């Protein structure tokens, strides 16, 4: 088999980019774990991570970076945590004196 010595395949810039992406992926996983402890429901967790101004956009501002992130083991772990978080029982919301949103009993 012929070995490719082309700069396209052995660029130090590509290797540095992969290391940086891994570091960002680890930061994303750490942030997600912390938010999963704090958020009351899956919607809040989703918005903090994926929403406008969320961590994903901060760490991975370009589409290419996000697509690379989706393929990391860290994102697989985030997906697993998200699935388990969504299956948790919902916290009951208290209402004053049994009234509904419109204030009627």
Topology:
Layout: H1 12-38, H2 42-50, H3 55-59, H4 63-69, H5 73-86
Question: What does this entry look like structurally?
Answer:
The chain is an all-alpha fold and 105 residues long. It has a domain at 23-86. The protein contains five helices and no strands. Helix 1 runs antiparallel to helix 2 and helix 1 packs parallel to helix 5. The longest helix has 27 residues, at 12-38. It is globular. The relative contact order is 0.12.
Features:
single chain; 105 residues; mainly alpha; globular; disordered C terminus
The ordered H/E elements are: HHHHH
Give the rounded overall mean pLDDT: 76
* Alpha carbon gyration radius: 21 Å
Which overall shape is indicated by the principal axes computed on the Cα atoms? globular
Approximate helicity band: 55-70%
Total helical elements: 5
Proportion of residues in β-strands: under 5%
Structure summary:
This protein has 105 residues and is an all-alpha fold.
